[in-house]
Amino acid sequence: MYYYSFQNVKLWNQQSVKKDAHLALLEISGIRSARQADEVDRLRMDKRRLVENLKKEVRL
Q1: Domain of residue 33, residue span
Q2: Looking at the 3D structure of the chain, how many domains does it have?
């Protein structure tokens, strides 16, 4: 069980870092369209979900 939890934490952390990088790129380059704004909103929600999962997994 511990190994499985560690793998989840590692995967969620990697996904969170990728979403941070994509989000930063969109914010730096400027959000110029509704599609980009929707993408930013989706990335922020996904990142929030991943962080919550990380917190839950670390508490176990």
Answers
A1: 2-59
A2: 1
Report CA Rg, the chain. 14
Task: Label residue 25 exposed, middle or buried (CB < 10 Å: 0-12, 13-18, 19+).
Answer: exposed
Which pLDDT does position 35 carry in this prediction? Answer: 93
Contact 57, 7 (CB under 8 A): no
Q: Measured between alpha carbons, how far is 48 from 12 in angstroms, rounded to an integer?
A: 11
Tell me which amino acid residue 4 is.
Answer: Y
pLDDT at residue 1 in the model: 47
Q: Can you tell me the distance from the alpha carbon of 32 to that of 56, in angstroms, rounded to the nearest whole number?
A: 36
Distance CA(2)–CA(7), nearest Å, equals: 9
Low-confidence ranges of the chain (pLDDT < 50): 1
